[in-house]
Amino acid sequence: MEKIENLNSSPTNFWHGQYVMFGSIVFFQIVNIVVQKIGKPKSVREDSWRWTNLVVSWVHAMIISIWDIVCFILYPELMNDLLYYKNNFIYFMVAATTGYFVYDFIDMIINNKIFKLWEITLHHIAVISMFGLNVYEGSYLAFTCVALLAELNSFFLHSRKLLQMMQFQYDIDFRKTICLFLSILFLKLNNAKEAYSSE
């Protein structure tokens, strides 16, 4: 099948992607250092590495979720060509998230978690391989943008886990509000997916 270039897509520069990826690794290492300096709350019983890792992952999920939603708002045409649509805004998001997964993989190696958390290790290897290839080739960026909508879910899951680790006491109204919000979010995203699939 012959590759069809999207005439509206802006060119991406491989080296710029590498710089963003490296900058992302450095950024998340700085976040890690700051979280370690602050320390875990006294109410957290789990080990410090788990707390720090979850906070850094939460920061990544928050940044990428917002960035991803902005991609769909600014560039709705990306849904018309999931394979070859590209622009620097989306390309840099994919490079930044790849950098995060490289950072987290290295952090797991340094802290001897690679075999203890083997399912996360396999996930990171798969993501780094796929997203890294997308950054290298500059293709499948819009498809990756769709896949990164999962980070919105990760943001809320990490928020919940962090609150549990801090032994946050949920009252019934708070719990109902969160359940309602997440149900509406799920239905909206599911409806958007169904609408796109039926086109």
From TrEMBL:
Bilayer topology term: Multi-pass membrane protein
Protein name (database record): TLC domain-containing protein
PROSITE patterns: TLC
One Pfam short name: TRAM_LAG1_CLN8
Domain annotation TLC: ranges: 46-199
UniProt keywords, alphabetically: Membrane, Transmembrane, Transmembrane helix
Cited InterPro entries: TLC-dom (IPR006634), TLCD (IPR050846)
UniProt GO BP: membrane assembly; phospholipid homeostasis; plasma membrane organization; regulation of membrane lipid distribution
Subcellular compartments: Membrane
A GO term from the CC aspect: plasma membrane
Transmembrane segments: 16-35, 55-76, 88-105
Coiled coil: none
